[in-house]
Amino acid sequence: MGAAIGTWFTAVTAGPIGHPNSSETLKHLAENPMWEEVRQEVASLASYERRPDLYQRAFTKRRGELIQRQPTLSNHWLLHTSGLAAAAQAASREEDGNRIGIEEVAAEFARFVTDPAPVCEDWLLLDAELPDDCRVPIGEWTLERVTQERLETLRPTGVLGQFRPFELGSEHLQGAAFLHRKTDRHPSRSFFRLPLMHARPHVQYADPQVVMALWSPEPVHLDAIYSREGSQQTVNLHGGVPVEEQSSDGETFWQQRTIGPFEVEDGLAFSIFCDRVGMLMAAARNELTKGKKATARAQRLGLAAEHLVQATHATYGNHTVMDGMVEELVTHYVIALEALLSDGDSGDLARKVIQRTAALHLSDASRVGVAELAGRAYRARSHYAHGSPPPKDNPFGERDLVLLRKLTLQVMLRWLILWKSDETHGAMLDQSLLSRQLHQLHVEKPLRDFYAATRRRASRPTSVEQGLGQA
């Protein structure tokens, strides 16, 4: 391997080399006669079974069916992702040639192809403000406040590593909030980067965002999506680091990362809450039928989470929304309530959802207020869906939308707390409305136990406003 790389590297750096991201440059480097010997060495050291990430799959069509051909080594991965093409270009320039040693290049490239396959991770940038040293588990995710030092540990190193893509190097990411997890997806190996083909990429990662919203209704937004593949590369798939100009005297300006209204002050209580609710969310979302498919209830929970996230990304500080968006957000919240409380039965749906929403609350006054708010939301959604103008008397406004957001989040939280694998929420909530004893046993006690275990105060509100202002 070392001899083959050394011979090839010496040959291609003898002349000018174009930009390493150009397909024409990669084609030029791969057409050098010595490159085929390098490929043979790589194939002998890293088979497809051990390093599938170094190979590309190809298909042929036979009698109308796609048939996979033998995978072949990817020149793009070997030249571009490894950093080899960029190192060759740098070495071909006189001012840089002395600092790139052929022996180092050969040794590092050999490690690149013989190391275990990289573990891929999703990294999501949020606009939340977290306490120092915050590191919180949320199901399969970890929520972390990162420092520049932490990000530097993710950067590829070495003579080739310095040329590999690393798109988490912004100086504005000091103290930023990230959600990250290990994943089997490798979007950078696709011709199209899949999240960019989704109209709303943030809904693909709804679960951890919803868990955070259940702690505080202040909106948290997903600003950027990154894919990290071990020490090989970190690429941006969607969005970016939002910045705004700051000045203390009106003359000197600097850029600062934009931070949203979501802020965590009690880090310990937040960690306990997210750990517990994250496990509840994962258990409910992974509920399977006997045929190993997601149950209808798990699918409805996912739908509710997606609509909550869509509504969140249209909501800003102090729960403000853009002009003309109130009715659309009401629709998202009502769909989320229906997904959680309908049990898949569309008969008399509005009445069932309104009553079950009320049944999740603790006092008579709160239940009456919640039912009235949910009913008004249904009427507003109906006017919007059928193209009717909103009613002139008592229209659904931004203040009502704030309460509806808090109500929908509380319904999801309480749905998760009461989640059981052996019965539906609907039947239990219907029965609890008819029996004070059943309500205390199946609703009040589990809620109070949860609040006590997670340091959230169980409340017995006297009005809908008070009830929706607390967990």
Report on the structure:
It is a single chain. With 471 residues, the chain is an alpha+beta fold. The protein folds into three domains: 2-114, no CATH class; 120-257, no CATH class; 287-468, no CATH class. 47% of the residues lie in helices and 13% in strands. It has a six-stranded antiparallel beta sheet with strand order 6-7-8-5-9-10. α1 crosses α7 (102-114), α13 (326-341) runs parallel beside α16 (398-417) and α17 (425-434) packs across α18 (436-453). It is elongated. The model is unreliable at 190-195 and 457-467 (pLDDT under 50).
Number of helices: 19
Largest β-sheet summary: 6 strands, antiparallel
Instruction: Provide the β-strand percentage band.
Output: 5-15%
Provide the helix percentage. Answer: 40-55%
What is the strand tally?
12
Structural class estimated from helices and strands: alpha+beta
Model regions low in confidence, pLDDT < 50 over at least 5 residues: 190-195, 457-467
Domain unit count: 3
Cα separation of the termini: 62 Å
Q: Give average pLDDT, whole number.
A: 88
The value of Rg in angstroms is: 27 Å
Q: Strand order within the widest sheet?
A: 6-7-8-5-9-10
Morphology = elongated
